[in-house]
Amino acid sequence: MDYLIFKLFHIIGFILIGGGLVSVFIADLRSRQTADIRIIAEACRYVAIFYDGVIVPGAVIVLISGPVMIFKAGFGFFQMPWLTGMWILFAFEFVEGNTITRIHFRRLIKRSRAALSRGGITAELRNEMERKLPTFTHYLDIPLFSLIVCLGALRPSTWGLFAAGLALSLAVAGTLAIGLPRIYNWPVDEDAA
Known about the structure:
Helix content is 83%, strand content 0%. By secondary structure, it is mostly helical.
């Protein structure tokens, strides 16, 4: 019975993470689609709300329930490729999300508020939004999350799915990181800069 309770919490944690990641993606995309600094600042605020209020709690639930489920099921932490792959990806996403992504979104909030007080998009805000590494890691979140879910659902006994999924995730994130900033390119308001 205890195992089922922790499994329920694990599923709830993953639902929170997935819903939060999609919400962050949409808010970020919305901030790129307009030159209205009020909408940009609001979208940046929503990114922080979804990240801190939905994704992080979901990750904490998964971080607690996952090891308990592994212990109760008698699985070894690193004896099965699907489980090891999930741990590797979760650990990477947890560290990356709380370093690169968090720093980037905090800067976006700060710079969007400053731009809002100036009345338009500033060079500082544009520069932060165009940073390559945070943009790539941001767009990598949903593909890697999808791979984690696939590994847990399919439970492959070899590393093939992990390798193929990782390659696909990197390709999708690279395409988004290159393509979306080119599609949605803000004009800089020279008066506000």
